[in-house]
Amino acid sequence: MLVVKVTSKRQVTFPKRVLEALGVGPGDQIELEEHPEGFVLRPRPAVIDWVPPLRGKIPADIPPVDLEKFREEGYDWSLRD
Fold first, then answer.
1. Is residue 30 a contact partner of residue 43, using CB atoms and an 8 Å limit?
2. Which residue from 20, 29, 31, 59 puts its CA 20 to 30 A from 10's CA?
């Protein structure tokens, strides 16, 4: 069992291994879904609504990124921060 502390501002800090298991890091979001037995945590998919305004601003010689492939493969956590 893991225990997290709630601060006076109602903030919590999850243990590193929990966040790594969820695949989330700084700036990412976590969804809480209510169930009869309690709540379920899961990473919230990235919202890409902001991408269209960037169209035409990325040089043509840079290949597109396959986001689904990127999510499946994961990444090197040491590169964050």
1. yes
2. 20
Q: Which residue carries 């840079």 as its tokens? A: 62
Domain boundaries defined on the chain: 16-75
Summarize pLDDT for 19-35 with one digit per residue, the tens.
888 888 888 889 999 99
pTM over 0.85: no
For every residue of the chain, which 3-state class applies, written as one string? CCCCCECCCCCECCCHHHHHHHCCCCCCCEEEEEECCEEEEEECCCCCCCCHHHCCCCCCCCCCCCHHHHHHHCCCHHHCC
Angle at 13 between CA 27 and CA 26, to 5 degrees: 15
Instruction: Choose among 10, 20, 76: nearest CA to 43.
Output: 20
